[in-house]
Give the backbone structure.
Amino acid sequence: MERSAKQRTMFILPAGQSAAPERAATSNLPAYLTPLIGREQEVQAVCALLQRQEVRLLTLTGSGGVGKTRLGVHIATEVLNDFADGVSFVSLAPISDPDLVIPTIAKSLDLTVGDAPLEHLKTSLQEKQLLLLLDNFEQVGAAAPLVVELLGSCPQVKALVTSRMVLRVQGEYDFSVQPLPLPDLTQLPGIETLPSYAAIALFLQRALAITSDFQLTSTNAPTIAEICTRLDGLPLAIELAAARPTCSHLKLCWHDWSIDWPP
C-alpha cells in the first residue's frame, strides 16, 4: 500500500540538517541545588575573558569563603558549549603535594599517565579543546609552572583556577572575587529594597530553606543586616549564620551564634 503524503514526509530531514547529531560537550561539574546569587556582573566579565583567544590561564582570587568555587563552577557551566571537549573539574582540596597536581588532572579525565605524567598529559590533550577548572590551587601553588607548561603544549586547552592568591606565572590573568554587596547600617533601606543587596538575599534564601515561614520584617531587618555586615558579606559565613536563627528567635540566636563564631 502506498504511504500518504504525510507519512512519506515524516522521515525527511529539514534542508541543511545532518542526520548525525552534533556531539554535546561533557563535564564533571558538581551540581548545586540553589541558584547563584549576586554574581551576575562577575559571571559576565569572566565569561567574556575566557572567550578571548589570548586568555589561557585565568585565576579567580579571593579570601576563603568568598565563593570562588561556586562562581567558578557557574562560569564553567556557562561556557561549556564553547569547548568541544567540555570542561573537567579538578578538586585539589584533598592534596597538598604539588607533584600530585598533574596526576590528579589526568585522573579527572580518566587518563593513565604512567611514569611521566606531564608528558603523557601533553600528548593526550594536544588536540583537545578543553577547559580545566582547577579548584583550591593555593595549597599546591608550586605546581603552577607545570600548568603553564601543559597549556603551552596544548593550544586549545584553557585553565580556570580558584585560589586565595595569584599564581604569579607567565600569561596569568587575575580576577579578584569580592564579598557580596552590603547595605549601609547607618542608613538602612526599607524591607522592600533590602533584598536587592546580594548578601541579604542570600541570607533570606538560606533562612527560608531552614524555616519555611521565615519573613523579612521591619523588626528583624536590622539584625539580619548586622549579621551580614559583621560577616563581611562572605557567602559561606552568611549561609552558616542563616541556618541558625529561627523566625521568632533571631536576636537570641544571633547572640549565641556570635559567641560561637566570633566575627
Residues 11 and 17 are 12 Å apart (CA to CA).
